[in-house]
Amino acid sequence: MDYTINPIGYISSSIKDRETAPKMEDENGAVRAVITINADVSEGLDGLKEGDWIELITWFHESKRDTLKVHPRGKKELPQRGVFSTRSPFRPNPVGLHRVQIVAIEGNRLEVEPLEAIDGTPVVDIKPFPKKFKGKLKDLNE
Amino acid sequence: MDYTINPIGYISSSIKDRETAPKMEDENGAVRAVITINADVSEGLDGLKEGDWIELITWFHESKRDTLKVHPRGKKELPQRGVFSTRSPFRPNPVGLHRVQIVAIEGNRLEVEPLEAIDGTPVVDIKPFPKKFKGKLKDLNE
Q: Whole-angstrom distance between the N-terminal and C-terminal Cα of chain B?
């Protein structure tokens, strides 16, 4: 079994490093960002359009993978918990999961918001938001 | 950059093959299933408890990875679309995303439902459901 991820594209963002990146579960600091999809898989974007909400799976390329417990949201005063009960970027398989809206799409270039990801983050997958969430998502993000 | 997934565990399910597996976006046929987490990473489960909803990322181990367009939900009468605008298991990086509830947890063994995944499916990651969705999820799944 080959478990190798081949990034389908990369994120361009004004968030340049982990220190200035917002902590997960904290909406402040999420920005508009650009996803550039590799030409060899850009045909897979057919059917996505402006206004759509997508689920974006990324690879936390700067994360350590041997961490099993963390202080939630990096707060030392909170007791350590298993990484699978947190959304920490430090985890055995450092995949991120983000819900963003497509604000513009042109060829293989998607502008999305709000996205909390470091500039240069590899993109693993894009999925449409499940139908059952449609029409409810705006409320959920408020 | 090493993009290799190391499965953190595997799914045991009464769904034995792709032919009898339900199509995505179709709730019928999702079942109660068991996730067994590998002993070397089971410490990462600390903090998860019965009743919690989790986001489960899996590896569609039986999927082709060179498919860029599909008929949505396998329905030949629907025009083909790019895989990133569908939740087809055929995609360049065959990761699945499932929202399930923990109905029992004992050591490294999680019983969850409802889960549409084939027996033997490798598990890539487990994340808690984001706080902003809490309390709204039951409605979303009805």
A: 42
**Cα–Cα separations (whole angstroms), residue B41 to A14, B21, B38, B83, B124:** 34, 29, 6, 32, 12
Q: What residues of chain B lie within 8 A of the CB of A60, using their CB?
A: none
pLDDT tens digits for range A28-75: 567 899 999 999 999 999 999 999 999 999 999 999 999 999 998 889
Domain range list for chain B: 9-133
| pTM recorded for the entire structure | 0.90
Q: Do A91 and B44 touch (CB under 8 A)?
A: yes
| pLDDT tens figures, B28-75 | 567 899 999 999 999 999 999 999 999 999 999 999 999 999 998 889
- CATH class of the structural domain B9-133: mainly beta
Show residues of chain A in contact with B46, CB under 8 Å: 69, 81-82, 85
- ipTM over cut 0.95: no
CATH-assigned architecture of domain A9-130: Beta Barrel (2.40)
Tokens of B79: 């025009």
Confidence of residue B141 (pLDDT cuts 50, 70, 90): very low
